[in-house]
Specification:
The chain has 3 helices and no strands. The chain is mainly α. It has a domain of 68 residues. It starts with 10 loop residues before the first helix and ends in a 41-residue tail after the last helix.
Length: 120
């Protein structure tokens, strides 16, 4: 019996993706546009300055974190300090988004893929 498998995430192959780069460009365009608007419209200077402060803080934290995590994953892969996990998934369970962490100790893990259903 041949087992098929899939790589869920490979930082060296998948990269960070196009969406974070696209959204970061929108963030930078907002910074440039806000700066131009502040120079051209003295009446709205206070409102736009407050908006720019929020825009810079939120985007800097959000996008900074995304790119930092990507760089940390690449560095861990390059240094060999990450773990590569291989094998069959025997008991897949969905994590409850209302609970922090994994299933509690003593809680039963439902078997979503019984061994009989995986045979051809």
């Amino acid at each position: 019996m041949q087992v098929s498998w899939i790589t869920l995430y490979d930082v060296s192959r998948d990269g960070i993706g196009i969406i974070p780069w696209f959204l970061a460009l929108i963030w930078i365009a907002g910074i440039i546009g806000g700066g131009i608007f502040i120079k051209r419209s003295p009446n709205a200077r206070l409102f736009v300055s407050l908006w720019m402060f929020f825009w810079l803080a939120a985007g800097g934290l959000g996008y900074g974190n995304v790119f930092y995590q990507y760089a940390a994953n690449r560095r861990a892969l390059k240094e060999g300090s990450c773990e590569i996990t291989e094998g069959s998934i025997t008991k897949l369970h969905r994590q409850n988004p209302t609970k922090k962490g994994d299933i509690a100790e003593g809680e039963e893990v439902p078997d979503l893929f019984p061994a009989t259903s995986m045979q051809p």
